[in-house]
Specification:
There is one protein chain. The chain is mainly alpha-helical. Helix content is 81%, strand content 0%. It has helices spanning 2-15, 26-47, 49-73. α1 (2-15) packs antiparallel against α2 (26-47).
Length: 75
């Protein structure tokens, strides 16, 4: 996520012509975006973080649903 923040800041600085980023090549401004895409589309699935996060979310949702059922039954 910090890479996404860096990309947004550099992009805005380039668009708004704020020095020193205004003098940089677009290549350097867009490099964090390329690294971010590489991270999200290649590295994360390769190491399995996407599946682990999905499993955690499903477990949390199931626990919340069970608690809601208990609450609705009056326990």
């Amino acid at each position: 996520m910090p890479l996404a923040v860096i990309f947004v800041i550099l992009f805005l600085l380039k668009i708004l012509d704020i020095p020193p980023v205004a003098n940089w090549s677009w290549f350097w401004v867009l490099t964090p975006f390329g690294l971010l895409m590489l991270w999200w589309n290649v590295i994360t699935p390769m190491i399995g973080w996407d599946k682990k996060m999905a499993e955690k979310k499903m477990a949390a949702d199931a626990k919340e649903a069970e608690e809601t059922k208990k609450k609705n039954r009056g326990f």
